[in-house]
Amino acid sequence: THSLLEHTDVVVLLDNEAVYDICKRSLDIERPTYTNLNRLISQVISSLTTSLRFDGAINVDITEFQTNLVPYPRIHFMLSSYAPVISAEKAYHEQISIPEITNAVFEPSSMMAKCDPRHGKYMACCLMYRGDVVPKDVNAAVSNIKTKRTVQFVDWCPTGFKCGINYQPPTVVPGGDLAKVMRAVCMISNNTAVAEVFSRIDQKFDLMYSKRAFVHWYVGEGMEEGEFSEAREDLAALEK
User: Angle, nearest 10°, between helix axes 195-210 and 225-239?
Assistant: First the structure.
């Protein structure tokens, strides 16, 4: 995170624990493997780049993520979520409407990093729809989200929803865990609750660093111990 602060414009956070939980809960995979995790993550990555590859009603360029989601250069760590995450067995009897998938991506259980967006406030969010989606339905779904008490925006930022619509439906690996669906949405959002992720990293770091666990490997590769405390201070400042 220390070097990501300086050298990147936008960072999308994904954490294994959260993606494991999504695989267990939504896809009924008792012991998810890295393949299961990666297939789910690849849907998010694919959604981020669809507008570069296919046509749509409202295209979202990669540079627009930075323009729309980053209010200050240091605050560029994004939460991501994706819906519908549904297994082929369940897909037959589940309604996957635009309002349903839009509501789903705002649920804490859909977040791909372990934190609760309800504990924080949104600075901006970007919704990328793909498949059988029309702007009218998207506008209605977003208006409905704006009326919800659980989705709160910071007062110094206008209620920023950036929407992208792409006509290419999501593709899945044949015989994989995810069902082939007509439409899907991926959300990338800038929410203050992301601090929960950093505080958890801080706690784990403090615990290990107090015992100097693994430090010798890094020092042996040419790092200095001072860099650890500098990085720790940087993260503490970001958390605030």
Answer: 150
At 14, list the tokens. Answer: 């994904």
Percentage of the chain lying above the pLDDT 90 cut: 7
User: For the chain, what is the mean pLDDT?
Assistant: 83
Distance between CA atoms of residues 201 and 169, nearest Å: 36
The pTM of this model reads: 0.83
* CA gap 37, 47 in Å, rounded: 16
CATH, domain range 7-192: 3.30.1330.20
Domain 7-192 identical in fold to domain 199-239: no
Catalytic residue among 64, 100, 196, 239: 64
Catalytic status, residue 64 = yes
Query: Residue 212: pLDDT above 70?
Result: yes
Do residues 59 and 50 lie in contact, with contact meaning Cβ atoms separated by under 8 Å?
no
Q: Give the architecture-level CATH label for domain 199-239.
A: Orthogonal Bundle (1.10)
Beta strand pairing status for 11-12 and 161-166? Answer: unpaired
